[in-house]
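Q: How do we represent a protein-ligand complex in a form that can be generated token by token?
A: Start from the inputs.
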Amino acid sequence: MFVCICRAVTIDEVHEHCDAGAYTVDAIGDRCGAGEGCGTCLDKLDTILNERLSTATTAA
Ligand code: FES
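Then emit the structure tokens for the protein with FE2/S2 (inorganic) cluster bound:
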């Protein structure tokens, strides 16, 4: 499933970039371009990152 249509970035790719240390929307954009087109996906990217941080916090 695409998160960013402009750059054809899937949710799995976003998670892979997070796994590799990208924990901000800007860092994700630097790695794959997500969010650097129309900007429609920025809220989705933010939600994914917040969910990951929330999960990491509760798992610790
Ligand atoms: S959908 Fe991601 S920048 Fe347009």
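The pocket of FE2/S2 (inorganic) cluster is lined by residues 4-6, 34-41 (CB under 6 Å). The mean pLDDT is 94.
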